[in-house]
Design a protein that fits this description.
With 233 residues, the protein is mainly α. 52% of the residues lie in helices and 0% in strands. The chain is elongated. The chain binds iron/sulfur cluster (SF4).
Length: 233
């Protein structure tokens, strides 16, 4: 491992440690579900939609259609009343029914436990697959990168791109595998709290002395350089 990678690993370890202390109860998805099928549905519905909005509609949806088989004979319009309050509900209605058909017909009504098969399911991209695998199966095959992760990674100097695949690769390179699920949720927690896309509230951010984008001026400013991370706790 080169020197830069070692220093990046030390930096990310420090970031994770501090974020775990700041957001101890946010290392799992905030979506509500009681089995793997419900998890898959909730994550598909969460695209460009807040978890809280998804949770508000899934209770009734899961009550009326608990299993993928229950969706097979539906038309997308049948789901509109359930999904109308969330964004992109027409497309999501169709994708849910198509996803149910594939899970029933190709995977014996079971949610697959690997990225390759999960990504065959309509509505499932790499991010959805990563969340389902880590939350539903405890398998870390990647890091789910959402808009918060993109913002936080760039502001911390861990990425210089908005391309989720590139950011995921870079975070996987410097982060211990056991932390792949945690780092995604911790960056989301930070992005919802102090490091919002439209407004950063650096003065109450737990990373404001080590972040290269911090607006807080203090004596530890020089420590924000990740190459000086060795002596930070
Ligand atoms: S210090 Fe500011 S820019 Fe850096 S992570 Fe915190 S809120 Fe974001």
């Amino acid at each position: 491992m080169d020197t830069k990678s070692i220093k990046s690993r030390k930096f990310i370890n420090l970031v994770i440690k501090r974020l775990k202390e700041a957001y101890p109860d946010q290392m799992h998805t905030q979506l509500k579900y009681s089995n793997k099928w419900e998890l898959l549905v909730a994550v598909i519905l969460s695209a460009q939609t807040k978890d809280i909005s998804v949770n508000a509609i899934t209770k009734k949806l899961f009550e009326d259609f608990p299993k993928p088989e229950d969706l097979l004979s539906l038309e997308p319009e049948d789901l509109y009343p359930y999904l109308r309050s969330i964004g992109l509900y027409k497309g999501k209605s169709k994708r849910l029914i198509d996803a149910a058909k594939m899970v029933v017909n190709q995977f014996d009504s079971r949610v697959p436990n690997n990225t390759k098969d999960l990504m065959k399911i309509p509505g499932v991209g790499r991010k959805v697959a990563n969340v389902v695998l880590s939350e539903g199966f405890g398998i870390n095959e990647g890091i789910a990168i959402d808009t918060h992760c993109i913002t936080v990674s760039n502001r911390l100097g861990l990425a210089d791109t908005t391309n989720p695949a590139v950011i995921e690769r870079e975070l996987m390179r410097i982060t211990a595998k056991r932390e792949w699920n945690n780092i995604s949720h911790l960056f989301i927690a930070l992005g919802r709290d102090t490091c919002q896309a439209r407004k950063k509230i650096c003065e109450r951010c737990v990373l404001n002395d080590i972040c290269i984008s911090s607006t807080v001026k203090n004596d530890t400013y020089k420590n924000r350089n990740i190459h000086n991370i060795n002596r930070l706790k």
